[in-house]
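Q: what sequence does this backbone want?
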């Protein structure tokens, strides 16, 4: 199962292909890969396609043995905390150092847009790199934080001071809710789930792009997807999609750990989770801005 997140997709955090170095290609006498990647093999060697898998005699399911230098959940948590911490730190600094009053609004917005473009470039470079680059990932987080800080400051100044904190709390609640639902197996990441999320995401992004074009050339809010009733509807849809991306990302991290991915891959896990959380925060901030702006 591949994630919608290009970070995980390129690196092979996948039930279909396993981690890089795991041979998932069908061999003679081996059934094709199905929903359970551990169920492959031959009668002589039922785990031939996964050289790291061992038979769990208690539960009857193969598991990857502990290996030195393999990624663990602690590695993922630590790297994610470092990456998100960089985002929060630079967001706070930009909030304090880049005022959004009438005299400085244009300058601050210009710096924020420039930072967003740089962060996008760094994100694309890392997404297509063969190896994780901690410096590149932290640089992305720093520039993304500058953008978020200015945007959040503007919302707090011109719409409602409580909107930003509400968006932060909402993002944390979505993350915690999806994590609990995933651990309890209330959310099951299947091929059908993946296909539905990807189709919905493509449609959502396409509509937002069309709306942006109409707003640029026609003025105003374009087709109205960013304000009013439609804005609220699409804000909710964006948050739901972000929650679905989180479920997919949790699955990819789980598979990466189970397959014994190298420890440095935890940086990619942190990078992917940060991308998704930024998406959720921005959608949450936009939705709350509409709701609070109508009060």
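A:
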């Amino acid at each position: 199962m591949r994630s919608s997140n290009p970070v995980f997709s390129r690196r092979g955090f996948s039930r279909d292909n396993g981690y890089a170095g795991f041979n998932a290609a069908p061999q003679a006498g081996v059934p094709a890969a199905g929903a359970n990647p551990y169920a492959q093999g031959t009668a002589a060697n039922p785990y031939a396609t996964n050289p790291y898998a061992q038979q769990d005699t208690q539960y009857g399911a193969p598991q990857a043995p502990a290996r030195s230098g393999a990624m663990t959940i602690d590695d993922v948590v630590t790297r994610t905390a470092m990456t998100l911490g960089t985002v929060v730190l630079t967001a706070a600094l930009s909030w304090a150092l880049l005022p959004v009053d009438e005299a400085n609004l244009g300058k601050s917005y210009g710096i924020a847009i420039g930072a967003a473009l740089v962060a996008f470039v760094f994100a694309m470079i890392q997404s297509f790199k063969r190896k994780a680059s901690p410096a590149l990932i932290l640089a992305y987080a720093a520039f993304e934080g500058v953008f978020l800080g200015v945007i959040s400051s503007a919302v707090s100044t011109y719409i409602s001071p409580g909107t930003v904190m509400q968006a932060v709390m909402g993002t944390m609640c979505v993350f915690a809710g999806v994590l609990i639902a995933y651990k309890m197996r209330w959310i099951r990441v299947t091929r059908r789930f993946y296909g539905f999320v990807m189709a919905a995401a493509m449609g959502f992004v396409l509509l937002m792009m069309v709306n942006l074009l109409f707003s640029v050339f026609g003025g105003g809010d374009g087709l109205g997807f960013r304000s009013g009733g439609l804005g609220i509807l699409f804000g909710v849809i964006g948050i739901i999609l972000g929650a679905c991306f989180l479920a997919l990302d949790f699955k990819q991290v789980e598979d990466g750990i189970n397959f014994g991915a190298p420890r440095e891959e935890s940086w990619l896990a942190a990078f992917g989770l940060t991308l998704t959380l930024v998406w959720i925060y921005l959608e949450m901030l936009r939705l709350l801005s509409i709701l609070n702006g109508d009060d």
